[in-house]
């Protein structure tokens, strides 16, 4: 919902409110992803520790930049980006990341599930924005490409030489981790 009595030129307030609501869900998801990636960074162990540990920091940085861009778009449209911890928890509709200290392959399998859900929701948001605001659509489209690339980095660690993923068809983080342990 807009906090001002104006929005960007060429967009009415009702449309801005719809766009802000979509962007708010993406901002919450991206904040959660950034924290989850850092959690994995701190809690990954095993033979591929350093590769995974170092791979995740640039993803965290990129996701933080995505959060900033989405929050600033919300503000540009006249909304209030609220990213405080309690507000994020209250607005998300998924559970916390379920793994703690775990092997690199277990965390990567769980992150594959996380990225799948996030990217599916991101693509849905892009589709909705296509009818409302091409600028916000473009912003999320660029982010989606980066998120898909990050998932590919994760999947490259999991993929067999025959192109199979052990996480195929698995819907939970713990279920995915169980497929590689």
Structure overview:
By secondary structure, the protein is mostly helical. Helices cover about 70% and strands about 0% of the residues. The protein contains six helices and two strands. A two-stranded parallel ribbon has the order 1-2. The longest helix is centred in the first third of the chain and has 31 residues, at about 15-45. The radius of gyration is 17 Å and the shape is elongated.
Give the key terms.
two-stranded parallel sheet; 181 residues; mainly alpha; elongated; 69% helix
Topology:
Blueprint: H1 13-43, E1 44-45, H2 49-76, H3 85-91, E2 102-103, H4 104-129, H5 134-158, H6 173-180
Parallel strand pairs: 1-2
Structural category = mainly alpha
Task: Work out the helicity level.
Answer: 55-70%
Q: Which band does the percent of strand residues land in?
A: under 5%
The helix count comes to 6
Order of helices and strands: HEHHEHHH
> Which outline best applies?
elongated
Terminal Cα span: 45 Å
Spatially, the strands of the biggest sheet line up as 1-2
What's the total count of β strands? 2
Report the radius of gyration as a whole number of Å.
17 Å
Low-pLDDT regions:
none
Major beta sheet summary: 2 strands, parallel
Average predicted confidence as pLDDT: 96
């Amino acid at each position: 919902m807009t906090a001002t009595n104006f929005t960007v030129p060429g967009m009415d307030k009702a449309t801005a409110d719809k766009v802000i609501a979509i962007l708010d869900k993406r901002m919450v998801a991206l904040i959660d992803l950034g924290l989850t990636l850092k959690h994995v960074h701190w809690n990954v162990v095993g033979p591929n520790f350093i590769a995974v540990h170092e791979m995740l920091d640039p993803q965290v940085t990129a996701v933080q930049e995505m959060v900033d861009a989405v929050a600033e778009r919300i503000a540009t449209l006249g909304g209030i980006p609220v990213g405080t911890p309690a507000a994020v928890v209250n607005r998300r509709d998924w559970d916390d990341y379920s793994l703690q200290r775990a092997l690199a392959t277990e965390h990567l399998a769980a992150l594959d599930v996380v990225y799948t859900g996030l990217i599916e929701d991101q693509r849905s948001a892009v589709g909705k924005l296509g009818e409302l605001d091409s600028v916000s659509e473009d912003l999320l489209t660029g982010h989606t490409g980066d998120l898909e690339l990050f998932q590919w980095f994760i999947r490259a660690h999991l993929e067999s030489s025959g192109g199979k993923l052990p996480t195929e068809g698995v819907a939970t983080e713990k279920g995915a981790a169980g497929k590689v342990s």
